[in-house]
Amino acid sequence: MNLVRTAMLLAFLTALFMAVGFLVGGTGGMIIAFFVAAGMNLFSYWNSDKMVLRMHHAVEVDARTAPEFYRIVEDLAHNAGLPMPRVFVIQNRQPNAFATGRNPENAAVAASTGLLETLSDEEVAAVMAHELAHVQNRDTLTMTITATLAGAISMLGNFALFFGGNRNSNNPFGFVGVLVAMIVAPFAAMMVQMAISRTREYSADRRGAEICGNPLWLASALRKIALGAGRVVNEDAERNPATAHMFIINPLNGQRMDGLFSTHPATENRIAALEAMAAAGAVPAAPARGRAPGAEDSVAGPWGKPAAPGAKSGQGPWGRNGSSQRGSRS
Question: Residue limits of the Peptidase M48 domain (predicted)?
Answer without folding.
Answer: 65-277
